[in-house]
Design goal:
alpha+beta; Glutaredoxin; 5 helices; 31% helix
C-alpha cells in the first residue's frame, strides 16, 4: 500500500508539472504577453514599442544551435522584406548561458555584428519570457498581429519547410501567413511543427 501511495504521489506531481507548463503555452488567437528585454546595443526593447506596426515576427533563436544557424539568413531576409511593410523581426535568445556559454550576451553582440542583424536581438535574462509564450525550440516563431494596443498570435511554428537548404523550400510558412493577413484573411496555415534545438535551462535541484 505504501509503495502504491508513493507512486500515486509521484504520478500526480508529474501531471501537475505538465499542467503548469501547459497553462503558459500560447495558442493562435491568444493575446501575446508584453516584455521588456535588453538588446545587444544595451537598450531595452518592449513589445509595446511596436504599437505603431501592423505586427511583429517574434523569433526565439540563439547563436549555437545548428538549426538556428541554418535559418539565420532567412530570418535576416524576413526583416529586410517585411519590416518596410510594418512587420519587423524581433529575436529573443531564451537560452541560459551557464548551460551554453556561446549564447551569453557578449557572444550575442558578436554574432549580431558579424551577421549584420537589422533587428533587435534580445536576451531573455532569467528565462522569464519564453515560458509565457510556450517556446520550446530555437528557432520558434510566433507571428503577432496588432489589434489596437495589443498583439494576438496568428501563427506558431517553423519559418518554412526546409531548414537544411533555403533553395529547396516549397512552403514559406511565415511569409504566406503575412501575405494572407495583408489580404485581410486568416493565415492558410496557423501552426507548423517547430524544428530546432531544445531551449537550454539549468537543471533544478
Amino acid at each position: 500500500m505504501r509503495t502504491f501511495s508513493l507512486l500515486s504521489i509521484a504520478t500526480i506531481a508529474v501531471l501537475m508539472a505538465f499542467a503548469f507548463k501547459g497553462d503558459k503555452t500560447l495558442s493562435v488567437g491568444d493575446v501575446a504577453p508584453d516584455f521588456t528585454l535588453k538588446n545587444v546595443d544595451g537598450k531595452k526593447v518592449s513589445l509595446s514599442d511596436y504599437n505603431d506596426k501592423k505586427g511583429v515576427i517574434l523569433v526565439f533563436t540563439c547563436n549555437h544551435c545548428p538549426f538556428a544557424i541554418k535559418w539565420e539568413d532567412r530570418i535576416i531576409e524576413l526583416d529586410k522584406n517585411y519590416a518596410k511593410k510594418d512587420w519587423p523581426v524581433v529575436a529573443i535568445n531564451p537560452n541560459d548561458p551557464e548551460v551554453v556559454p556561446n549564447d551569453g550576451p557578449e557572444e550575442m553582440k558578436k554574432r549580431a555584428k558579424e551577421k549584420g542583424f537589422t533587428f533587435p536581438y534580445l536576451f531573455d535574462e532569467g528565462q522569464k519570457i519564453f515560458p509565457k509564450y510556450g517556446a520550446t525550440k530555437t528557432p520558434h516563431v510566433f507571428l503577432l498581429k496588432r489589434y489596437k494596443k495589443e498583439f494576438k498570435v496568428e501563427y506558431i511554428g517553423a519559418i518554412d519547410d526546409n531548414y537544411q537548404d533555403a533553395s529547396k523550400v516549397t512552403t514559406k510558412y511565415v511569409e504566406n501567413a503575412i501575405e494572407d493577413l495583408e489580404a485581410g484573411k486568416k493565415p492558410r496555415l496557423t501552426e507548423a511543427k517547430a524544428i530546432g534545438c531544445s531551449i537550454k535551462v539549468k537543471q533544478q535541484d
